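Input (structure):
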């Protein structure tokens, strides 16, 4: 027998002995209380009968397996039930043997005595362990922020943790209706909305605010962070806890994620429609190693396709997402394919071999200044690569191709944005042909959205790296604004658009889906928030330095061109841009000329073709901003 098993059986035996002794004692006390003139139990062996009754009842009730240190209200209720059944058994035994009860109240006295004997020692043991642990371990004063249920889970986990360094001084509730009450022994100091006043009223300032509720986000969270910063109090988030053995869960506090500050409502997605579209079909994802492509692969894999093809030209990124998919979905056939979307023959061969039903095209060059310095590379990947993927998908019999586009394609000021707009134009043409029956049957869905928080090359990872180095955080311009969305939300809406765009709904031919990105965010405000989330003070502990607009950048991104009237789709989070269509023959000829210019290294000729096909393509007025600190 292993040492752990031996300890378990010893504890089980100890619980059995203790419960038996307590039951025997309760029987003796009951006779004394029922008839003080004759306190000795009759028959004399009846206390042993009480012990035996508890042991027998303990088998179905599982009394011996109770952990005294973690005794809970349901456990106490169960002990009370066991005591009631044991009392009933003993009284029936006495009556059945023809013996008189000590008094008419004896059954109630016996049940109460057994209940107290079984519960009170366990409660006292738990309280003693909690008090000794709290006295030894508590080194920081904290105020919990959340609702009663989440606070209860945190307190339960802290009570059972080996190291619980927080002495909880009170609770900030999500709702003002709880102010002045006590929840789980904690005074409700105030509501989150009144956090500055509530913190000011405390005689001893807490060292930390611990957010226990996942519901606190957006503007309410931002207000709490501002109040905490003013009071000089750190803010952390508790891990996600459950009611399943909370004492065994870790209480490692986590920093507030910048994503939590996006004040975005939860959108209900048509997951049954997604399942009908994806389940049992072979899907391919290009750019699968990138942020969007990898999240597409994760969410697609959750709908049980018959096979998933992961394409990318980067080995390491491809290996990472392949490993993750195989770990999460070991039964799902998954193929990794190293391929460059610009290699038309290679892409055609891959699609002809595997014949995907659905193609999600996320591969692109997306970094504006880099594409500005290497425009031919951007055109070959974003335009000619999209053509290669779309043509190969159509030729191999795919039913649907989804193009991931960008808000930078609207009134583009950069080669990257203009190249994505030309890719949109090409896919719009294919979709019009499919809808009108002029060409192949493959439908093309184009989805346009803004920046994704935390994606590769985005501003959030840059700020995190600069914070780790002590700053400064670099912002190109004080008025720079961008739309932001989490990668999970963006991909969920991409799949939603795929369902709508592949159906028979009356959407315009060549219409472009545009994700509802909410309100734009000033980059300098984002930088300040990230400094605060790191527990530092903007412009005091960490400086912000303005560096000036980079080539191809705009101060404001747009989601719709002036000629694209936004129209609702009937699905939350999705809008439709009224299409601006180009002649398919002209587009095909332009892309052929663009291909020829790119092969010859003719940058000027390629850019002239791009400007002709995307007439709104213009360079921004560069605003001179001195690299100053604020």
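Output (sequence):
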């Amino acid at each position: 027998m292993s040492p752990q098993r031996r300890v378990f059986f010893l504890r089980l035996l100890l619980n059995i002995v203790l419960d038996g002794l307590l039951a025997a004692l309760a029987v003796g006390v009951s006779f004394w209380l029922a008839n003080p003139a004759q306190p000795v139990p009759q028959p004399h062996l009846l206390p042993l009968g009480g012990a035996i009754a508890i042991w027998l009842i303990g088998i179905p009730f599982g009394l011996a397996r109770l952990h005294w240190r973690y005794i809970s209200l349901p456990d106490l209720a169960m002990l009370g039930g066991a005591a009631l059944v044991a009392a009933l058994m003993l009284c029936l035994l006495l009556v059945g043997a023809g013996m008189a009860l000590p008094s008419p109240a004896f059954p109630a006295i016996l049940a109460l005595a057994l209940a107290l004997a079984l519960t009170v020692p366990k409660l006292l043991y738990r309280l003693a362990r909690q008090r000794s642990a709290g006295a030894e371990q508590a080194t920081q004063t904290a105020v919990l922020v959340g609702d009663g249920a989440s606070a209860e889970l945190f307190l339960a986990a802290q009570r059972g943790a080996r190291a619980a360094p927080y002495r909880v001084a009170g609770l900030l509730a999500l709702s003002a209706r709880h102010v002045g009450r006590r929840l789980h022994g904690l005074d409700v100091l105030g509501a989150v909305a009144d956090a500055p006043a509530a913190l000011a009223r405390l005689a001893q300032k807490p060292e930390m605010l611990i957010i226990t509720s996942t519901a606190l986000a957006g503007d309410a969270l931002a207000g709490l962070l501002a109040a905490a910063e003013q009071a000089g109090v750190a803010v952390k988030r508790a891990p996600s806890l459950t009611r399943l053995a909370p004492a065994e869960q870790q209480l490692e506090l986590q920093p507030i994620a910048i994503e939590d500050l996006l004040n975005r409502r939860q959108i209900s997605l048509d997951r049954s429609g997604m399942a009908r579209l994806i389940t049992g079909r072979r899907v391919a994802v290009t750019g699968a190693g990138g942020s969007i492509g990898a999240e597409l692969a994760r969410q697609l894999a959750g709908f049980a396709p018959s096979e998933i093809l992961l394409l990318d030209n980067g080995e390491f990124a491809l290996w990472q997402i392949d490993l993750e998919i195989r770990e999460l979905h070991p039964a799902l056939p998954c193929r990794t394919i190293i391929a460059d979307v610009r290699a038309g023959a290679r892409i055609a061969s891959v699609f002809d071999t595997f014949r995907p039903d659905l193609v999600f095209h996320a591969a692109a060059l997306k970094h504006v200044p880099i594409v500005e310095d290497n425009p031919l590379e951007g055109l070959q990947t974003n335009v000619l690569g999209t053509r290669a993927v779309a043509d190969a998908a159509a030729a191999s019999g795919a039913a649907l191709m989804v193009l991931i586009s960008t808000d930078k394609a609207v009134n583009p000021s950069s080669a990257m944005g203009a190249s994505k707009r030309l890719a949109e134009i090409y896919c719009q043409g294919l979709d019009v042909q499919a809808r009108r029956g002029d060409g192949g049957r493959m439908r093309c869905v184009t989805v346009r959205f803004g920046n994704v928080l935390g994606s590769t090359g985005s501003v959030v990872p840059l700020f995190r790296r600069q914070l780790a180095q002590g700053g400064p955080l670099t912002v190109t311009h004080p008025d720079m604004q961008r739309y932001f969305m989490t990668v999970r939300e963006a991909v969920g809406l991409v799949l939603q658009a795929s369902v709508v765009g592949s159906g028979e709904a009356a959407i315009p031919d060549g219409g472009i889906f545009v994700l509802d990105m909410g309100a734009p965010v000033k980059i300098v405000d984002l930088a300040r928030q990230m400094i605060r989330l790191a527990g530092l003070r903007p412009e005091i502990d960490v400086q912000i330095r303005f560096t000036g607009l980079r080539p191809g950048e705009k101060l404001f991104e747009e989601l719709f061109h002036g000629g694209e009237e936004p129209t609702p789709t009937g699905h939350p989070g999705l809008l439709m841009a009224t299409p601006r269509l180009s002649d398919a023959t002209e587009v095909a000829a332009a892309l052929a000329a663009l291909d020829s210019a790119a092969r010859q290294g003719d940058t000027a000729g390629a850019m002239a073709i791009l400007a002709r096909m995307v007439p709104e393509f213009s360079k921004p007025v560069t605003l001179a901003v001195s690299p100053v600190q604020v």
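Notes: Confidence is low (pLDDT under 50) at residues 620-630. The domain at 138-256 is CATH 3.40.50.720 (Rossmann fold).
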